[in-house]
Write the structure tokens for this entry.
Amino acid sequence: MNVIEINNLTKNYGKARGITDISFQVEEGEIFGFIGPNGAGKSTTIRTLLSLIYPTSGSAKIFGKDCVKFAPEIKKDIGYLPAEVFYYDNMKVIDLLKYSASFYKKDCRKRIKELAEMLDLDLHKKIDDLSLGNKKKVGIVQGLLHEPRLIILDEPTSGLDPLMQQKFFELLREENKKGATILFSSHILSEVQKLCDRVAIIKEGKIVQVEKISTLKENTYKKFKIETAAPVQRSLFQMEGVNDLEADGTTVSFLYRGNLNEVMKKITDVEIVNLWVTEPDLEEIFMHYYEKEE
Ligand SMILES: Nc1ncnc2c1ncn2[C@@H]1O[C@H](COP(=O)(O)OP(=O)(O)OP(=O)(O)O)[C@@H](O)[C@H]1O
């Protein structure tokens, strides 16, 4: 079953582009990454899913129900951690969390205690006195206290130190094992890689790829580096499938995706001294998506 189903979703802010014609699905039980550079449209997509803003066109379903029509009902089963958390600073942490819990028809007291212990959060402090990281923890507890079926996290790790990030990821994995589906938005590749099964890559308001992390690594460019006996013309390797071509005297390097025999034929046209064919690391694969089109 698809927990999230987004169909041709577009959101414009007046004349400004928010997101354009976005479609993807998140299956039940997945930890799904949503990655793209700042301003790509991750928050806009998430805010539309939560009916905090309304689509210009297209639609989205959560738990098989239209996000706009069934917003109040759907929200009971969603835990949301926004990119930036704002609170009434005068309140104590515990009072804020009890207030949040009052929206659900559940006794959340035990879970609040467990989460606070796990994240090392002092429930009796005033929010005003908390560091940025501790405020973020309040947001995490707030998002998870009702044991939601779907957890939506928008850039959740900013402000958390590495040890706390690790604990937070463990917590998310536990929730996932218990059955929660997770949508995890981030611009940090390494954390998405650590946690997620699949990713949607968003760039300039459009989805450029939806793929398993493992497949992204497999079916991708290979990196070629060739050393030749005599200088070669750059144009020799200007062919379909070649990207990031660099030719400097007797050294040529490029990324290639396509039939390897085709590129090997080109290579046999020159006298080579050495040849390296390597897999790009995931960072390089993503950077390719991040680069702006001319
Ligand atoms: N309230 C708004 N009014 C006008 N334009 C907006 C508004 N909110 C977002 N945008 C624009 O929509 C586009 C997508 O922004 P969005 O915040 O969704 O990106 P993002 O991927 O979440 O990036 P970030 O990580 O920087 O938050 C950007 O070009 C942004 O300037």
Residues 2-217 form a domain with the Rossmann fold fold (CATH 3.40.50.300). Residues 162-177 form the longest helix (16 residues). Residues 66 and 167 are 34 Å apart (CA to CA).
